[in-house]
Amino acid sequence: MRNSIARPDFTLAYHALTWEAAWLPKPVIGVADQKLAMTIDIAALGHAVHGAIRPAALLPVEVSAEDPFVMALRRIEFESSRLIQAQIHFLKSDDLKPVRDAVSAAVETRHRQVRKLWAELLEGIGIRRDPESE
Predict the structure, then answer these.
(1) Do residues 21 and 92 lie in contact, with contact meaning Cβ atoms separated by under 8 Å?
(2) Based on C-alpha coordinates, what's the Rg of the chain?
(3) What is the pLDDT of residues 74-108, one digit of tens each?
(4) Is residue 6 situated within a structural domain?
(5) Is 30 among the domain residues?
(6) Which of the 8 DSSP states describes residue 104?
(7) Is 50 a domain residue?
(8) Count of domains in the chain?
């Protein structure tokens, strides 16, 4: 069993602001229709969140598969995979062919941003990720 040690975190305000600002939609550069540009960014952000944040992967190997918390985390990941399918369907739709490069850039940017924030969060709770697994 691990003990918790409370330490002041002087970077908490910065991390909280960074984390909160990450969820704000940003219009995609290269898309003239602002409503469409925001929609693309929101879908790209959703795709990144559902693809990069995998809490069930943090569970210890010896945890019981029948534990309600474990079952809930696995269900969340299953539902995330379903949401990713819908986001991919939209982001690769024929309607977005004229702005395909802008869509790809938005998805890549959001994935990079979410992976960075997730790695910072994990590091903040003492979990270091292997750079090779990125």
Answers:
(1) no
(2) 18
(3) 999 899 989 999 999 999 999 999 999 999 999 99
(4) no
(5) yes
(6) H
(7) yes
(8) 1
